[in-house]
């Protein structure tokens, strides 16, 4: 897991990166109603693999709340919060099976599915009607498969970065030391 | 492919396929039927699905100051049929049946508005 300062720096970095991606995505027009790439979760996955589920939870929730402060604590925030809590639940439930029985991509898809399911619930509760929200289920399940896979693959690529994979902070005195995350 | 991956992908794939089968063919028409809203003083007082199969209905809306608007729903369309305001713009707006169409009676602060359902309109604001 590395030193406390490494952990702090990584968490902060991942929150900042996630927030930037989160905001960039929010500015883009949605591909389809209700569908967003959800790329910000890449950093949650990275935090999970590099540091553990507590850090993943912190990175994700901080990003959601800060994103809410930037773009308003409106419906998008509620959907985001509900979805993220569900995705974290999926992480805590299934994270222990990674990487032996579940791949990072599989975890990411499960998270995306949980996220979308919770989002559907939030929308149905707010509109007070299942009729409007439920027909979205197949679309959201499909998008969870696609975006979850993409997010998982991206996280895997990012985790190959030497900074995340093995080494402590650059500029330290341990460049030759190889540490397992 | 790890063992649990199959469960994750399978479950979501089943949701996608099953849901698509359940919702797309049968409910396409019902799901995409527009909804009309009758607004009075800016508040929605009535919300009806513009279902061509539904029996005709009428509403009479009275406003303070003696304003009266008569609204008729018939054959999947809705319109103002009568208004005792001077300009009667709302009546001239004619039948409304597509999302986005409106008929507004400004003097009486009464409006008709057609919105989409199921196919996104309501969710667009949320997803952004």
TrEMBL record, chain A:
Keywords: Membrane, Transmembrane, Transmembrane helix
Signal peptide: none
Gene3D superfamilies: 1.10.1760.20
Pfam families for this protein: Hpre_diP_synt_I
Transmembrane segments: 42-66, 73-94, 114-132, 139-159
Name this protein carries in UniProt: Heptaprenyl diphosphate synthase component I
């Amino acid at each position: 897991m590395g030193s406390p300062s490494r952990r702090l720096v990584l968490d902060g970095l991942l929150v900042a990166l996630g927030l930037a991606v989160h905001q960039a995505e929010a500015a883009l027009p949605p591909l389809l109603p209700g569908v967003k790439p959800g790329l910000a979760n890449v950093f949650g996955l990275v935090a999970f693999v590099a540091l553990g589920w507590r850090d993943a939870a912190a990175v994700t929730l901080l990003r959601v709340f800060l994103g809410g402060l930037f773009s308003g604590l409106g419906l998008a925030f509620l959907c985001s919060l509900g979805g993220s809590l569900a995705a974290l639940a999926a992480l805590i439930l299934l994270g222990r099976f990674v990487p032996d029985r579940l791949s990072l991509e599989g975890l990411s898809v499960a998270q995306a599915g949980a996220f979308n399911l919770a989002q559907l619930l939030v929308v149905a509760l707010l509109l007070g009607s299942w009729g409007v929200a439920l027909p979205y289920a197949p679309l959201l399940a499909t998008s969870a498969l696609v975006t979850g896979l993409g997010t998982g693959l991206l996280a895997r690529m990012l985790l190959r970065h030497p900074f995340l994979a093995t080494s402590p902070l650059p500029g330290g005195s341990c460049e030759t030391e190889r540490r397992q995350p | 492919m790890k063992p649990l991956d199959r469960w994750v992908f399978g479950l979501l794939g089943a949701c996608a396929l099953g849901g698509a089968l359940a919702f797309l063919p049968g409910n396409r028409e019902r799901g995409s039927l527009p909804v009309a809203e009758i607004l009075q003083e800016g508040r929605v007082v009535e919300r009806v699905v513009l279902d061509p199969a539904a029996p005709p209905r009428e509403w009479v809306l009275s406003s303070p100051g003696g304003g009266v608007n008569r609204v008729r729903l018939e054959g999947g369309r809705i319109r103002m049929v009568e208004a005792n305001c001077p300009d009667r713009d709302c009546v001239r707006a004619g039948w409304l049946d597509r999302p986005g169409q409106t008929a507004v009676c400004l003097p009486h602060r009464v409006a008709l508005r057609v919105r989409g359902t199921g196919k996104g309109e309501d969710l667009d604001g949320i997803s952004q």
